[in-house]
Amino acid sequence: MRKFRTSLATALLLAAAPLIALGQELAAPVPDKADTTWMMLSTILVLLMVAPGLALFYGGMVRAKNMLSVLMQVFVVFSLIVVLWVIYGYSLAFTGGGQWIGGFERLLLAGITPDTTAATFTDGVVIPELVFVAFQSTFAAITTCLIVGSIAERVKFSAVLIFAVIWFTAAYLPIARMVWYGDGFMFQRGALDFAGGTVVHINAGIAGLVGSLVVGKRLGYGTVPMAPHNVPMVMIGASLLWVGWFGFNVGSNLEANAFTGLVFINTLVATAAAILAWSAGEWIFRGRPTMLGAASGAVAGLVAITPSCGFLGVGGALVLGLIAGFACLWAVAKLKVWAGYDDSLDVFGVHAVGGIIGAILTGVLVSPTFGGTGLDGYSMGAQVWTQTLGVLITIVWSGLVAFIAYKIADAAVGLRVTEEQEREGLDTTYHGERAYQN
């Protein structure tokens, strides 16, 4: 059994607390060119997940009259959060000593130069801190963009931006710090989240569910056909998400070394298994498998493997992908209908449900008995409880902040577009453009 990679707690603490390489008695480590290149490439891959990946995935799923509005929301929200990350997000998430929020020493990246470094999972191995900042910025930005899918086709563009600022500041930053920073509340308790099951997917999925409930259903929901207008575009978007996700998961190792191979193949295998499971489920219960279902299955598998990709063996990744494919199909096809909420693009059913499954089962499948990497002093019951506690805190905190943020946006500019604007479509009424010329 590996010694938990020098103890994940120690390693992540080093990664989260950048080393300033000035004035030290010992020779400061120098970033390796290969590690630096890999992390820049990983950052670019995560950017690919958003534009065009997520944008096309979401854009193809909405009706043609709202396609550009969704693309615009994803594109602009991503840009907005990257800017806020540089201004204050990185400082509050990854500096200082608090369990829930950090300090202000890195506002506008003060004190960071091309020579300052951030440590990785290996003692003495570092990457440029600016690269670490850029990589983490894409995580914060794509998490906020995911929420757009739940409230698509009926929310004002200005309200989306106001919500994004508040939720990023009061929900994403505290949860990222709680889980990933060395002094964080859940980090100190040994919670495992390699690349963002709680921080990214449960966080966004719960905020999306709250949004769909606060905003209400689309006009004609349940009586008017609202099928995706371009399924090939959905498939292209899902494929780009799959490709980009290797930067998301494998890049979270912060190094290009042998261990990245495990993260890489786990990401590949879990996704493929979830596609098969979702397609098989549709075939069995609906009589035919669909391309939309296969694309959704891919995202479900990617979501589920995200928190555990560095802790599972390949067999565990295969099992997790199969479970996630069937479970997320159930959430989208049954739970959503039973509960009666209008989560436009199934952000809750795929991201929250897949994230919850992945986060909790990490506590089981990390066991060497199931081919996992193992932990020092591992107890399955204790680890599952720790994982569950992290999930519960994320659900409650994200949901509460999201509700408040939606209400503030509603009071400021109004959340919902008019009935006339919704019927005509947001592309023309809010952006004066059409995706397709008749």
Care to describe what's here?
- By secondary structure, this protein is mostly helical.
- It has a single domain (about 10-430), classed as Ammonium transporter AmtB like domains (Ammonium transporter fold, Orthogonal Bundle).
- It is about 65% helix and about 0% strand.
- It has helices spanning about 10-15, 35-60, 65-95, 130-145, 155-180, 185-190, 195-215, 230-250, 260-285, 290-305, 315-340, 345-365, 380-415, 420-425, 425-430, and strands at about 115-120, 125-130.
- A two-stranded antiparallel sheet has the order 1-2.
- β1 (about 115-120) and β2 (about 125-130) form a beta hairpin.
- α5 packs antiparallel against α13 and α11 runs antiparallel to α12.
- The protein is globular and about 65 Å long.
- Mean pLDDT is about 95; it is low at about 1-25.
